[in-house]
Task: inverse folding
């Protein structure tokens, strides 16, 4: 029996570096990861290729995909729509591949509802850990600047509540190592591996 793969969702506040961390992760080829290419209505940027970076589609086509339940989740971000085609995710998980989604937070919360067994990783900005010292040194910064930062950080912290793991993106290679460690550990969870030992246990009875 093929063990079903993990659905790994990397998300976090905008600008935290999700795309950069995701690209760096995929350089580690020894992991059994496959990237779920999203559909988007935004125009390709220079250097982006249809079918590699995204499936670039019209709004009409995107609406059709929503209507036909072809998306695991979707969200509007700025002026464009982004979504995860469900067929690819399902097919890869059944083949035992780990499927990696790099999506914004509203979409991640939708995946969590329909796929609670997924592995939800929150990529946090390093500024959160710096915040405390900034607050301590309040006198050196204008009061409203500190308060704005605190308010923004509070919102970011609230978002992390629904995730399983929090990884600080202080340096890309460190964030990658942490994520790979989480994936390794997740594969070793007793409930995932115990069936491998069941035949031994039965034989010895
Ligand atoms: P960009 O336009 O910079 O490529 O992506 C904008 C945001 O959309 C990023 O935060 C990215 O993680 C997110 N995103 C990319 N694909 C998807 C998707 O399929 N679903 C959701 N919900 N967000 C996505």
Result:
């Amino acid at each position: 029996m093929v063990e079903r793969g993990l659905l790994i969702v990397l998300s976090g506040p905008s600008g935290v570096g999700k795309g950069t961390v995701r690209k760096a992760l995929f350089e580690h080829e020894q992991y059994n990861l496959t990237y779920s290419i999203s559909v988007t209505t935004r125009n390709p940027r220079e250097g982006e290729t249809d079918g590699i970076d995204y499936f670039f589609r019209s709004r009409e086509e995107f609406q059709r995909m929503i209507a036909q339940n072809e998306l695991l989740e979707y969200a509007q971000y700025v002026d464009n729509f982004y979504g995860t085609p469900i067929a690819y995710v399902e097919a890869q998980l059944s083949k035992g591949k780990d499927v990696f989604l790099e999506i914004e937070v509203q979409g991640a919360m939708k995946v969590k509802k329909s796929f609670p067994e997924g592995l939800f990783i929150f990529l946090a900005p390093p500024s959160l850990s710096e915040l405390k010292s900034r607050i301590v040194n309040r006198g050196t910064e204008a009061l409203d600047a500190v308060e704005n930062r605190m308010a923004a950080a509070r919102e970011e912290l609230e978002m992390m509540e629904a995730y399983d793991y929090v990884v600080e993106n202080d340096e890309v290679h460190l964030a990658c190592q942490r994520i790979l460690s989480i994936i390794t550990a997740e594969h070793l969870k007793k409930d995932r591996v115990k069936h491998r030992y069941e035949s031994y246990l039965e034989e010895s009875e």
